[in-house]
Specification:
This protein has one domain (7-125): Jelly Rolls. The strands form 2 sheets. A 4-stranded antiparallel β-sheet has the order 1-6-3-4, with no helix packed on it. A two-stranded antiparallel sheet has the order 2-5. By secondary structure, the chain is mainly beta. The protein has strands spanning 7-22, 31-34, 42-52, 70-73, 86-89, 110-125. Helix content is 0%, strand content 43%. It is elongated, with a radius of gyration of 18 Å.
C-alpha cells in the first residue's frame, strides 16, 4: 500500500487590497496597522516592499510620500498571513546595516503591501 499526501486548497471570496503608508516623522515606537479584511476573512500577502521617496512630507497629516524613487522587497509583512489585522513596527524603515534599504544608505519613508483577504480557505491531506 502506498501513501500519497495531497495538499489542496479551495479559496472562496478573494478581495485584493493595496496598503500604502508613509512613516511618521519620528517612527520610533510607531506602527503601521493593517486592518483591511472583513469579518471571516484573513490576510494573504502577495508582496511587500519598503521604499524611499524624495517627495516625503512628514509634517502633513497623514504624512505624504507620493513618488517611488527606491524600493526593496521586505518580509516584514509575512507574520500578517492568516490574521485579520496586523501591526508592523515602523522601525523597519530606519537605516541600519541589516535594514532593507541598506544599499541606499538612507531611511525609508514608506511601506507598500498588496494582499488579498481570503475566506473559506481549506487545507487538507488525502491519504490513500
Amino acid at each position: 500500500m502506498h501513501t500519497m499526501i495531497v495538499h489542496c486548497c479551495r479559496i472562496v471570496g478573494v478581495n485584493t487590497v493595496k496598503f500604502h503608508r508613509c512613516r511618521a516623522g519620528n517612527p520610533r515606537g510607531k506602527l503601521f496597522t493593517i486592518s483591511g479584511c472583513p469579518a471571516g476573512q484573513v490576510i494573504n500577502i502577495q508582496y511587500a516592499e519598503v521604499g524611499y521617496s524624495q517627495k516625503y512630507n512628514p509634517s502633513s497629516n497623514p504624512p505624504e510620500c507620493p513618488w517611488r524613487n527606491c524600493t526593496k522587497p521586505t518580509t516584514a509583512a509575512t507574520p500578517c498571513n492568516g490574521r485579520r489585522s496586523c501591526d508592523i513596527d515602523q522601525d523597519i524603515l530606519l537605516f541600519s546595516p541589516g535594514s532593507a534599504l541598506r544599499a541606499s544608505q538612507r531611511d525609508g519613508n514608506f511601506i507598500r503591501i498588496e494582499f488579498t483577504c481570503v475566506a473559506g480557505m481549506f487545507t487538507g491531506i488525502l491519504l490513500r
